[in-house]
Hints:
Distance between the termini: 13 Å
Strand content: 35-45%
Radius of gyration: 14 Å
CATH topology: Alpha-Beta Plaits
Number of strands: 4
Largest sheet: 4 strands, antiparallel
Amino acid sequence: MDYIVVFITAPNEEEAAKMARVLVEEKLAGCVNIVRSISSIYSWQGKTEDDSEALMICKTKKSLFDALKERVIQLHPYTVPEIVALPIIAGSEKYLDWLREVTQ
């Protein structure tokens, strides 16, 4: 079974926590860590922006990515939310067993 980590930025910790709770309760993610107050410098509509955001780090199964992505799009206040998945190439067997059990 393939597992992934999904990075999602949010405008603040409160918005991130709301989305994280839904993702975990709906079993689309086993765990979501929230890193508060990251600095994001990015290009948007022809301008360079410099904002403070929160970063969500979601652990889930690769097979759930599309459902997770669609749910985040429904919940997210941004027009174009960052939703980026990276593979988990290795991990603790007990942790990955737990992740399998708590996700759909």
